[in-house]
Amino acid sequence: MPSATDETSLKRKRPRVPEKPSKRTKPESSDDEEEDEENHQAEILLLEDEILKSKKNYNNITLLLEFAKNQDDNEVALFAAVSLCRVFLRLLASGSLSRKTGQSERETIVIQWLKGRFSDYKKLLVSALGEEASASTALTLSMRLLKAETQITSDRGDVTFPKAFLNDIAGALVRKRFEDVQEEFCEKYLGEYADIRFYTFQALR
């Protein structure tokens, strides 16, 4: 029979019961999501940079459009939409979306393809105007494109206002009735630019 001393010794040698691990699934999940978002943003910036460096990388535009259509991550989608805006502003400024005399058939096909993707991007922005989380950003990007298109035709001496695009923008703003975005449009654009005011009222009629 063990003595009291032996019993005390046994008690001391008894292993500790391991503590239950604290539940930290949410922070870890949040960290993973943040890391994924940062990786996507880095990829988007790389795709944008490659487009601006070489015409060979124009297919990256399609990949950026896919990112911008991402319904699972609004932050990534908006990041891609902003990236695409920079891309198309550069392409517009460089004349890459305009046909010129003496161009080869291959160059003409590339321009037509770029115009198609530009049209896809505009539709994406108009669609984003219908979502409250993205409406303000979509409005800013849309109006930058509108201004760039107007400026380019003006510089060529052929002033052609992009009425169809403005009609789509105004229609989206009226249908969804996000008051803060409507006020932003009225204060920043409708009250400041006579041509936008004229064509907007014309569209609303």
Shape, principal axes of CA atoms: flat
Largest sheet: none
User: How would you state the average pLDDT, rounded?
Assistant: 85
**SSE pattern:** HHHHHHHHH
- As for the number of domains, it is 2
**Rounded radius of gyration (Å):** 28 Å
Q: Count all strands and give the number.
A: 0
Give helix % range: over 70%
Please report the number of helical segments: 9
Question: Spans with pLDDT under 50 lasting ≥5 residues?
Answer: 1-27
What is the percentage of strand-forming residues?
under 5%
**Helix/strand-derived class?**
mainly alpha
Ends distance: 103 Å
Structure description:
The protein has nine helices and no strands. It is mostly helical. The protein folds into two domains: 39-128, no CATH class; 133-205. α2 (25-53) packs parallel to α4 (74-93), α3 runs antiparallel to α4 (74-93) and α5 (105-128) packs antiparallel against α6. The protein has helices at residues 4-13, 25-53, 60-68, 74-93, 105-128, 135-155, 163-176, 179-190, 194-204. Helices cover 73% and strands 0% of the residues.
SSE layout and pairings?
Layout: H1 4-13, H2 25-53, H3 60-68, H4 74-93, H5 105-128, H6 135-155, H7 163-176, H8 179-190, H9 194-204
Short description:
The chain is mostly helical and 205 residues long. The chain has helices spanning 4-13, 25-53, 60-68, 74-93, 105-128, 135-155, 163-176, 179-190, 194-204.
What brief labels describe this structure?
205 residues; mainly alpha; 2 domains; disordered N terminus
